[in-house]
């Protein structure tokens, strides 16, 4: 399918889209990506990563890396998340992704409603921006696929939490494992790892 999202917000030569993945997870890092797309190399089927299958995301990841003018990945681990909170960690991950760009952006489009200025570059926050603008959609796909790979690697260390299936999100199976054996060294200890017992069935 071909996406109907917009190719850009402003007619800057280098407009970077930013998004993160893993903000609501109980374990693992938060991962962000920044992407500057090439207007002469359009990528069909770009969309919010949550609306795509794993197979579609994997194929688009290859195309984004091949066609984008620049891209960067930023990672903030669970220790840093516990130290500075998840909002600050998400923004820090975006800053780290922007720092990896080989081209200095003239404008930054950010998914969501919170951001801190990066090197005095003008920016704009876009609620549901990953479904509205191609560069943010591309960033959402890179962030999601990168984080999924990291969680698969952590799953090999701690298969009991099934991170290869839940990626660290608070599913019933994940929380049941925490209740049975306790948290791993990769869990975010400032998060509510276990709800009240009568709320456990709400997570599936």
Characterization of this structure:
- The chain is an alpha/beta fold.
- The protein folds into 2 domains: 141 residues, Nucleotidyltransferase, domain 5; 47 residues, no CATH class.
- The chain contains 6 helices and 5 strands, in the order ββαβααββααα.
- Strands 3-2-1-4-5 form a 5-stranded mixed beta sheet.
- The longest helix is centred in the last third of the chain and has 24 residues.
Identify the notable features of this structure and list them briefly.
single chain; 204 residues; alpha/beta; 2 domains; 6 helices; 15% strand
Q: Please tell me the overall pLDDT.
A: 92
Q: What is the spatial order of strands in the main beta sheet? A: 3-2-1-4-5
Tell me how many strands there are: 5
Helix content: 25-40%
Outline: globular
CATH top level of the largest domain is Alpha Beta
Q: Strand portion, in percent? A: 5-15%
How big is the Rg?
17 Å
Largest beta-sheet characterization: 5 strands, mixed
């Amino acid at each position: 399918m071909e996406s109907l999202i917009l190719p850009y917000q402003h007619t800057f030569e280098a407009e970077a889209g930013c998004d993160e993945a893993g903000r609501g997870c109980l374990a693992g890092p938060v991962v962000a990506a920044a992407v500057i797309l090439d207007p002469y190399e359009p990528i069909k089927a770009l969309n919010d990563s949550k609306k795509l299958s794993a197979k579609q995301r994997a194929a688009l990841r290859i195309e984004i890396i091949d066609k984008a003018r620049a891209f960067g990945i930023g990672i903030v681990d669970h220790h840093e998340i516990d130290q500075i909170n998840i909002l600050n960690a998400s923004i820090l991950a975006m800053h780290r992704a922007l720092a990896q760009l080989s081209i200095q952006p003239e404008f930054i489009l950010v998914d969501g409603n919170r951001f801190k200025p990066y090197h005095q570059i003008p920016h704009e926050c876009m609620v549901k921006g990953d479904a509205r603008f191609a560069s943010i959609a591309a960033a959402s796909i890179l962030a999601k696929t990168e984080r999924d790979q990291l969680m698969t690697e952590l799953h090999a260390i701690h298969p009991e939490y099934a991170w290869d299936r839940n990626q660290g999100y608070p599913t019933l199976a994940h929380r049941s494992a925490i209740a049975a054996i306790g948290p791993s060294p990769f869990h975010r200890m400032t998060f509510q790892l276990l709800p009240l017992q009568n709320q456990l069935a709400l997570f599936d």
